[in-house]
Amino acid sequence: MSAFGSITTNIDYERDGKQVGNLRLVQSAFVTGWQTELIPVVCLRNGDGPTLLLLGGTHGDEVDGPVALMRLLHALEPGEIRGRVIAIPALNFPAVEACRRTAPSDGKDLNRCFPGDPDGTFAQMLAAYLDRVLLPMSRVVIDLHAGGRWSRFLPSLWLLEGGSDDHWRFTQEVAKAFGAPLTIVSGSLGGDMSESAARRGCAYISTESGGAASVDPAIVAMCEAGIRRVMAFLGMVPGDAAPPADKATRFMRVPGVDGVQIAEGAGLFEPAVELGDRIEVGEPIGHLYRIDQPMAPPVPVRATTKGLIYGLAWLAHVKRGDRVCIVAEEA
Ligand SMILES: [Zn+2]
What we know:
This protein has 331 residues and is of the alpha+beta class. Helix content is 22%, strand content 33%.
């Protein structure tokens, strides 16, 4: 049993074979004074070689990733690989259990808690474990996200720029190997895992695909195929390390806050566009209907930037300031 702060694990990361165990986080701030959160971990190792870290459920209402990882783990045996795969299908376990973006115990966004705090809240402790223990072991981390309950995204990877030129070049090569139809590039979110990974010499790629807290078999298949191609790219398995040329990923960019379209009022949101449509500045993304003023005309939410409709609200209940759409532009 190795320990890091209040986190222990019964996985021996240096042992060959397939191990199924847990991270154990003890916190006194839960329901009882000695509450242990068990987070399942699967480790496959076959001798020396690169380490690939696979994460799902960083946000608890993003569920294609956990399913894709469990499918992959059912099929994968250590004898097929060279090196090590560490997979945590439901990283923010209590959040996944509750189908919430954040863990009920602290309400903190795990992907804004890096580099974490070993003596902090649940999400801060987990971020610290990743930052100090798992990311330094890993050459690449694939963190599978989706649109959550509130939204849906086109099938894509999302890369956050950062690190040295060599690190950024390598990260883009990993993204090409994963081969999602789209690869969206944007700036750092602040306190995200990508920043920690860059500091630890680990390339970070994340999917942002599907959503609505539902599982899309096509996106699950995309994640599985992408992970296998990244393994081939790293020399961990034989096979093609890139998708066919006609399926190569297309790099696009979300230009910071300009690409994020927010509602300036509240209401029931009726989209006027679909994912994959193109939009011009001033065109309506959708309309807000005021339930307290049934005869008031619906208020349009107009695009403030032009480009591809990449992410769109799924939940109709929109509050003032909510993000209703993300528009991507050519890279
Ligand atoms: Zn997410």
